[in-house]
Specification:
The chain has 386 residues and is α+β, with helices and mostly antiparallel strands. It has 13 helices and 18 strands.
Length: 386
């Protein structure tokens, strides 16, 4: 399947196919339909968040080559709303369809070892890391790094598939990870804060980067995003340079999130997310072009939009299913939350509010990131009022 062939642009009226039916697919669909495109969702679960706002859905396992082949006949371009999709069935299709991001890029981003090797090959700084195949590999790494994190090379997100490790607990933890699955261990970086660079590239090579986001996590799940991050202009230039190198090296088309550690003037690339990202949700309300519209523009080889913030600052707070469980009535108090001026509520249409499940978000704009954060946190706190 050639990914480098010259392609024409797609225009409103064309059909975008999305593998995956979650909230990212939902927001891509909403922006695509606003622009006049048709959207067809492929997901094993019927009537998920994306299907609720799309034109059509196909329900079948992602590995079902026959269902994928039939699906591809009805779309003009294929994209993904999450990266943990087996690419084998797609490669077997031998399709001439446009698939963005390309499958090579997707496979690199699916595997933490391949991903770290790729980033390092570009001369870009990451945390120290090593592939782990045995307990001897692990002890050798811990001889040089007192604190580390062990992760499965594939799958895992929001803190799943990883654990902190040191010489006092490595034996017990290794016994849980040593299940004939590839693993990677990464040295601990004493960063000042976590950040993300959302960037976009179309097939013509045009590149745009959103303002750098300052991210705060809780229990390994993104909790608060504030934009723009307060960092030196030279650091921003460094991030833009490495972002261009990564997207070009992957021949990437679409929106890519580069997750970062910032330590003084140093920038470490933590991982890549080959899709729109939770830290860019503020852009739906407070950027000239949202990350979801930008993704549509990129995969359709259209001119990329202005990614800058509408003047001011913005913040976003995630709404997890825990809020439903914590409220005495079993449902958040939407009325009290919506009393908070300048806040915007987004819910994803998920039926069951499981613990740690992302059910929606609240975003706000203000004159400063501190004020914007206060607004979203106040609105979220109000959800628990009686």
């Amino acid at each position: 399947m050639s990914q480098n062939k010259t392609i024409s642009s797609l225009f409103p009226g064309a059909t975008i196919g999305i593998l995956g039916g979650g909230q990212l697919g939902r927001m891509i669909s909403m922006e695509a339909k606003r622009m006049g495109f048709n959207v067809h969702i492929f997901d094993p679960t019927p009537n998920g968040p994306a299907a609720q706002v799309s034109d059509k859905e196909t329900n079948a396992p992602f590995e079902d080559a026959n269902a994928l082949k039939a699906f591809m006949r009805h779309i003009d371009v294929l994209t993904f709303e999450f990266e943990n999709i087996a690419t084998r069935a797609l490669r077997q299709l031998n399709s001439d369809h446009m698939i963005f991001p390309n499958l090579n890029a997707l496979e690199i981003c699916q595997n933490r070892i391949l991903e770290k090797n790729f980033i390092s090959s570009l001369g870009i700084q990451t945390a120290p890391y090593s592939e782990i195949k045995s307990v001897e590999d692990l002890t050798a790494f811990l001889d040089n790094h007192s604190k580390a994190i062990i992760k499965t090379a594939t799958l895992g997100y929001d803190g799943k598939g990883q654990a902190q490790i040191d010489k006092t607990n490595f034996s017990d933890i290794w016994s849980h990870f040593n299940k004939n699955q590839p693993c990677i261990v990464e040295g601990f970086v004493a960063f000042d804060f976590e950040a993300s660079a959302l960037c976009a590239r179309n097939h013509s090579g045009e590149f745009r980067m959103f303002p750098i986001a300052h991210n705060i996590h809780k229990d390994h799940i993104l909790d608060i995003t504030m934009v723009p991050a307060h960092i030196d202009d030279n650091i921003i230039k460094n991030i833009k340079t490495l972002s261009k190198a990564i997207t070009s090296g992957l021949d990437y088309v679409g929106v890519l999130c580069i997750e970062l550690f910032i330590k003084g003037n140093e920038v470490f690339v933590n991982e890549l997310a080959p899709r729109p990202h939770n830290s860019g949700h503020y852009s739906l309300d407070f950027a000239y072009t949202s990350q979801f519209e930008q993704h549509v523009r990129a995969i359709c080889n259209l001119p990329l939009g202005n990614p800058n913030l509408i003047p001011g600052a913005a913040a976003m707070a995630n709404l997890l299913g825990d809020l439903w469980h914590q409220h005495s009535l079993g449902c958040p108090n939407w009325k009290e939350a919506l009393k908070v001026n300048d806040s915007k509520l987004h819910l994803y249409g998920k039926k069951e509010p499981k613990l740690k499940r992302k059910m929606g978000h609240i975003s706000a704009s203000a004159s400063s990131t501190i004020q914007a954060r206060k607004i979203v946190e106040e609105a979220r706190d109000n959800l628990l009022k009686s």
